[in-house]
Amino acid sequence: MARNLNHVTLIGRLGRDPELKQTKNGVNTVDFSIANQRDSGDNERVNWISCRAYKKTAELICNYCTKGKKILVEGEIWNDQWEKNGEKSSRTYVLVTNIEFIDGGKSSDAGNGPVGNTFTPKDNGGYSDEVYESYGEYDPSEEF
Fold first, then answer.
1. Integer Cα distance of 129 and 138 in angstroms
2. What DSSP line would sit under 28-47, residue for residue?
């Protein structure tokens, strides 16, 4: 029997400095985007991928990453849908479950920060269906 698979692994550079926010339930979160550049001869293409992280992962990204820093993210594709004032909207992003810092931390010294460290769901407090459901207890049409 075939199983469904929803797994994404990306390496890219942060598009702006991340900003830690909290959901209405007090869960730390950060929305960020990474630029994933693809070179194929004369044809260069940059894809901007929206990402969201929670809890410890969100804190680590905000503490150690700045605009332009290279990061590896693993996660799942998520799609939020909502309706506000009769208008339907949606947003697709990577829900980050693992991260690895490729560049150094916030300092220009590449020796600062957790380079090469991988942070897994265990480090992030674990992900489960129950936790995912608690993340969804916000109105995605509103900013945090």
1. 16
2. EEEEEEEEEEEEETTEEEEE
Q: Degrees (nearest 5) of the Cα angle 139, 142, 144? A: 95
Token couple for 22: 């909290």
Whole-model pTM? 0.72
The domain made up of 8-117 has a fold known as OB fold (Dihydrolipoamide Acetyltransferase, E2P) (2.40.50)
pLDDT tens track, the chain, 144 positions: 668 889 999 999 999 999 999 988 889 999 999 999 887 777 788 999 999 999 999 999 999 889 999 999 999 999 999 898 999 999 999 999 999 988 765 544 444 444 444 555 444 444 433 344 444 444 444 444
DSSP-derived letter for residue 62 is: H
Q: For residues 142 and 24, give the distance between their C-alpha atoms in angstroms, rounded to a whole number.
A: 11
Taking alpha carbons only, the member of 100, 91, 27, 25 closest to residue 64 is: 100
